[in-house]
Design brief:
The protein is 18% helix and 35% strand. By secondary structure, the chain is α+β, with helices and mostly antiparallel strands. The longest helix has 10 residues, at 71-80. The protein starts with 7 loop residues before the first helix and ends in a 25-residue tail after the last strand.
């Protein structure tokens, strides 16, 4: 399995491979690092200076599984399997912080609010 993106520089060098939801920027998307490691990202909150997103390290097989899954349930599964991370990034200050989502910092309001499936989204490559 891939290692986690741990620094601001690593995160800004990633490339968006697929975007599944877009509104004034990516909301739900697949990224790849310079080393070829892939992650699903899901925007939780956009503030004037900070973005907060879920981050899930994935393989190609897991991406394909996600595409046929109920997305809310897929994220909850990642949480239960201890594969779900939350990061905050501030582009102006070049700050990046990542933490694993655990029982102590779990917030159910951060997850997608309704059940939806990939075939309902306008995915772009």
């Amino acid at each position: 399995m891939s290692t986690l993106i741990n620094t601001f520089q690593e995160m800004i060098k990633t490339e968006i491979v697929e975007s599944y939801m877009w509104y004034d920027g990516p909301l739900f998307y697949l990224i790849k690092t310079e080393k070829g490691q892939m992650y699903i990202c899901y925007l939780i909150a956009r503030q004037p200076t900070d973005d907060k997103e879920f981050l899930v390290p994935v393989t190609l097989e897991e991406v394909e599984e996600m595409k046929t899954s109920n997305i809310r349930e897929w994220f909850l599964k990642q949480y239960r399997e201890h594969k779900l991370y939350r990061y905050t990034i501030n582009f102006e200050a070049e700050l990046y912080n990542v933490e694993q989502v655990e029982e102590s910092n779990y917030d159910p309001t951060e997850f997608p609010t309704s059940d939806f499936y990939m075939d309902k989204l306008d995915a772009k490559k």
